Known about the structure:
This protein is of the alpha+beta class. Among the domains are: 3-108, CATH 2.40.50.140; 306-436, 2-Layer Sandwich (Gyrase A, domain 2); 615-631 and 685-706, no CATH class. An eight-stranded mixed sheet has the order 6-9-10-22-21-20-17-11, with helices on both faces. A hairpin with a 2-residue loop joins strand 2 and strand 3. It is globular and about 115 Å long. The structure holds aspartic acid (ASP). Residues 189, 211, 213, 502-504, 547-549 line the site of aspartic acid. Aspartic acid is lined by residues 189, 211, 213, 502-504, 547-549.
Amino acid sequence: MQHSRRVFCGSLTPEDAGRRVTLAGWVDAFRDHGGVLFVHLRDRSGIVQIVFNPESTPDGVFHRASLLRAEYCIAVQGRVDRRLPGTENPGIETGSIEVFVDELEILSESEALPFTVSEKAMTAFGAGAKTDHVAEDLRLQYRYLDLRRPSMRDNIMARHAIFQRLRRLLDGKGFLEIETPVLTISTPEGARDYLVPSRVHPGNFYALPQSPQLFKQLLMIGGMERYFQFARCFRDEDLRPNRQPEFTQLDIEASFIDEEFIYQLVEELAVEMFALGGITLPRPFPRMSWNEAMEKTGSDRPDLRFGLLFEDVTSIFADTGYSIFRRILQGGGRIKGINIAGQSEKLSKNVLQNEYAKEIAPSFGARGMTWMRMEGGKLESNIVQFMSPREREGLVRQFRAVDGDVLIMVADTSPAVLASALGQLRLHLANRLGLIPADLYRPLWVTDFPLFEPAEGGGVTSSHHPFTAPDRTDFDPADRDELLTLRSRSYDLVMNGEELGGGSIRISDRNLQRRIFTALGLTEEEIQAKFGFFLRAFDFGVPPHGGIALGMDRTVSMILNTPSIREVIAFPKNRSAYCPLTGAPSTVRREQLAELGLLGAGKKEVLPGPADGEDEVERLSWVSRIRVLPGERREIEETLRRAEALARQAEERAGDEEPVFSPAPAANRLRDGGEARTPDPAAAEKLLKLSPSVKGNYYKVPGILD
Length: 706
Ligand code: ASP
């Protein structure tokens, strides 16, 4: 069959009726209906029903068709026909036609499958198979089968479409797609590096990039002006369900720009991307300072799909008689709360007291939680009697409380604990009460982050990375308190409570960059050792520049509304950062470690002899640098076994006798007809002159001559 004439299954329409076509793909499903064989043939474009009818299909073809099983790879030829009314299948793209087959080539058979690939029912209203119940590790182990499922194929194709759209848009705006190195030095993004040992520079390591940060800035210094890249980034972080040790980000940098340029650009990119998923994002995206986000939602990535914003009610209780609040206020604390409007029916006293106040709020770090319900124009709870009428009125006014509302409050001396506990309560309540509308997308720019955070052992660390421009430059790098008041010219793009990306305007002044490093506690030597090359570039005319990076796995996953980012990555690691398909990460041979200088290369105990669980043939093949072909393996194993048996036998027979190297007397052997040649000692001398060392009458030469 001529594959070049093949048409795609999913492309056939009723207009093709009567046409003779060649199709190829996989057997998605099959059924025998009264002696007529129906097969769903699937390729990347879709599914079409093909029919083998004993009356019209040649006998041989019909017989072979009866042997077809799921996921056989086949090619067929036949005639397209409209289906009879009532037999259409709206569940597949080509449900109003079918192809009557008269030629079949089985290209490749398939074993029984570890899970069902087929998702589409063969009859009009039949239920398609679901793969939800298949263990994810099994799907990942057989990812190539998993990718055949139409839903996975759709994800991968949508990802492709999104990437292409972004490429076209950025190209249209004069951005250059430029690759930066993967084998590089450490980039400070706050995670651990993955290290790659260098064989040719023993004891030295490359780091896989946590981001192309240094290079994209150097590209700006290099005059490229506008850069983008779908960059693979590597961060060795603790396991979290929706994280991957390697991920893809759309990395962007531009010169002679300010924050507004990035907002406009990224809003346009986001609107276009989400539109591909049928989602309309209204522009301009709202903006909120980090401070306001923390004050109002307790989170630096606020979910704005619902209300439940915080109110600060500290001043109402300035001279309260309620001892719990009084003590916290005396300790410099604050009291904040949320009006959960109109939810008192769903939040009984029992739920508020026994679940939220006793269990849930403490699990979020709060010391306690105060609750009240508005009933008959009054606040009701187990503690209202401790509050003065003025305090109660103050609460009703500030929360604008009406009957049916529930107020909750948390008091704490630590602003961070207060924000985090109330922030988590906000999300918990929104989820529990079903206050988060499906299909709503609320983008938000969070801006003006603190430049620094307090470091654990004193001092400060960068909240983002040390190249982020501060909001002012007249600070004292040695004054920790002042450093902690600085804000950065940074921005995060947040959507529905998830951070999709972030970036900043960069420092473009060498002295300022130096002072930031000093503020971070780096000595001059450390600055030179880590960033000397980078700072040197700042000596040669740096344009003002800034950029951003968008996490593409997360963004695509959100657009397609998949349960995890692994659904939009062709070959992801599982939740434990392990690849069930390839078995990575895996142990390596001791020889490899030795060669990399990681085991003290050359030390005797490292090399000879197989280690536990090691494959002897592979080891010998590696040591001798001779590749073993699959067909040779059995023979080599057999030979090895015999050699070992022989050695054991010899050992047993030898008893106390001295071992000898060879049972035959040593003598030179010459090929028949050849002449004995005595090597010229002078020539040998010349040849071996360069050998590393001489011992007695012997020259020591490397084990393997290149
Ligand atoms: N390098 C940053 C990151 O990966 C993004 C940026 O600042 O543009 O988070």
